[in-house]
Amino acid sequence: MTTLRWPVEPIHQCLIEVSANEIDGLNHANNGSYVKWCEQAAWDHSQTLGLGIKDYQTLNRGMAVRQAEYHYLAPAVLNDKLIFGTWLSHSAGSKMTREFYVIRQSDHKVILTARWHLVCIEISTGKIKRLPAEFIDVYSKAVITQE
Questions:
Q1: Which residues, 6 or more positions from 18, have their beta carbon under 8 angstroms from its beta carbon?
Q2: Minimal CB count within 10 Å: which of 37, 63, 82, 127?
Q3: pLDDT score, position 9
Q4: Signed CA dihedral, 81, 111, 21, 16: sign only
Q5: Looking at 3-7, 40-44, 116-120, which range is the least confident one?
Q6: CA distances for 20 relative to 27, 30, 37, 109, angstroms
Q7: 31 in the Ramachandran plot: left (φ > 0), alpha (ψ -120 to 50) or beta?
């Protein structure tokens, strides 16, 4: 998509443009929009790796956010183009960690960093389960650690 300095390489990238319905009373992108955009970037990455929602449903397993950390570093405004970088930084047992790094395209300023602590659940019961072999095969190969 573009050559920027990311905290790790290779990183999955998605471009998102801030629209009018995402602007709040403070005249910048609402914090809740970032949560939605992170989810979009995460699903795009997962599907690119080969696991989509239909696979989750077939396996009766899914990765659910147990804890989320968002660090808002600068505002985004109407029509800003944001590059969402995401990667997996940990995967073991029933847990995974997904990281996000968001850069404003116009000035390459980092405007958000985020981290999701995920847990594998059985979709039908909501109970925590170990990662199925299909998840391990796909996601463990995609883990990137910072050096």
A1: 29, 33, 76, 77, 78, 79, 80, 81, 82
A2: 127
A3: 86
A4: positive
A5: 3-7
A6: 10, 11, 15, 21
A7: alpha
82, 104 Cβ separation under 8 angstroms: yes
- CB atoms closer than 10 angstroms to residue 95: 16
Taking a C-beta distance cutoff of 8 angstroms, is the pair 134, 51 a contact? yes
Secondary structure of the chain as H, E, C letters:
CCCCCCCCCCCEEEEEECCHHHECCCCCECHHHHHHHHHHHHHHHHHHHCCCHHHHHHHCEEEEEEEEEEEECCCCCCCCEEEEEEEEEEEECCEEEEEEEEEECCCCCEEEEEEEEEEEEECCCCCECCCCHHHHHHHHHHECCCC
Tens of pLDDT, residues 34-46: 999 999 999 999 9
Position 11 pLDDT exceeds 70? yes
